[in-house]
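pls design
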C-alpha cells in the first residue's frame, strides 16, 4: 500500500463511515473508540449523539434503547462538558477525569502517585486479564 494524502484521506473516510453505512457492530466499535461522545447542537436535550446519516439503522432509537437499559450513560468530562459513555467504561473514565485516584485504585501500592495515563494502562491490564480469564473458561 502506497501511503500518500489520498490514501490516508480515503482510509479516514472509510473508518468514519463516510463512504459506506455502518452496521450495528461497526457503529459500536466507532462509538467505543470515540467516547466520551458529546451531543451536538442538532441533538435534542438529553439525547445521546447520533450519526444517523452514516448508519444502516435508526441509531436514534438504538441509542435511546441503550440509554433506557443503562448501557449508555451521561457524565461530565473534559472540563465539565457533558459526554456519553458506555456503562462498562465508567471506571476508565472516572480514572481519567477524576482527581481522587486513591479511591478508584484502593489497594494498589503507590496509587496516590499515579498519573492519568498510568491509570489507563492499569485499566487496560485489568481488561486484558478479564478477557484472558474468559478465554480459559
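designed seq:
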Amino acid at each position: 500500500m502506497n501511503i500518500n494524502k489520498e490514501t490516508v484521506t480515503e482510509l479516514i473516510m472509510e473508518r468514519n463511515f463516510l463512504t459506506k453505512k455502518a452496521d450495528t457492530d461497526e457503529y459500536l466499535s466507532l462509538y467505543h473508540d470515540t467516547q466520551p461522545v458529546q451531543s451536538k447542537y442538532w441533538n435534542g436535550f438529553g439525547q445521546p449523539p447520533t450519526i444517523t446519516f452514516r448508519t444502516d439503522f435508526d441509531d436514534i432509537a438504538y441509542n435511546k434503547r441503550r440509554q433506557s437499559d443503562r448501557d449508555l450513560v451521561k457524565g461530565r468530562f473534559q472540563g465539565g462538558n457533558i459526554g456519553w459513555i458506555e456503562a462498562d467504561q465508567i471506571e476508565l473514565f472516572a480514572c481519567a477525569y477524576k482527581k481522587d485516584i486513591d479511591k478508584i485504585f484502593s489497594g494498589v501500592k503507590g496509587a496516590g502517585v499515579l498519573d492519568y495515563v498510568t491509570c489507563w494502562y492499569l485499566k487496560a491490564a485489568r481488561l486484558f486479564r478479564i478477557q484472558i480469564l474468559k478465554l480459559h473458561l
